[in-house]
Design goal:
The protein is α+β, with helices and mostly antiparallel strands. It is built from four helices and five strands, in the order E-E-H-E-E-H-E-H-H. The protein has one domain. Helix 3 crosses helix 4. The radius of gyration is 15 Å and the shape is globular.
Length: 161
Amino acid sequence: MKIRTSVEPYLACRVVGNVKRGWHLKASDGVSDVAFSAKARESGTEKLYVVKHDGKFCYVGRTSQPLSARIREGMSAPYPYPWRRWHEVDLYGCFFGRRSDPDFGEGVEAELVYLIRQGTRQRPGKWPVDQHEIHLRHCEGVSDPECVKAALDIYGELARK
């Protein structure tokens, strides 16, 4: 099965709020909600989201929820996103056109983090700065070629941005 990946940028998103009022991710004006696409609003499909700050990879996450719901949940979780400390971030939604499949989604997430560790000069050999966990689900320790291909496509696009 050929996997088609697409990456959508949501640039200069503002992190607004505080501990008392809660934290939110807003559009670049700091007021409007981020205008997520239909793909990003879909429930039950695999998607990754990648956060960059000042051109550096900060975080890679996976969800099958609508992207806005996952971001909102992560902003106020008991262990919230560490990247919420930044005033401005670039968020990239990565879509596969594939129904919920945690093994595939987490496989792509793990392969993408591996590529970031290997291919960035900012922190050679280290995790993205705000990455706090990664799930590895390789069957018998072998990477799924579809996951590797999808991660290479995403990394190729995002490394240039």
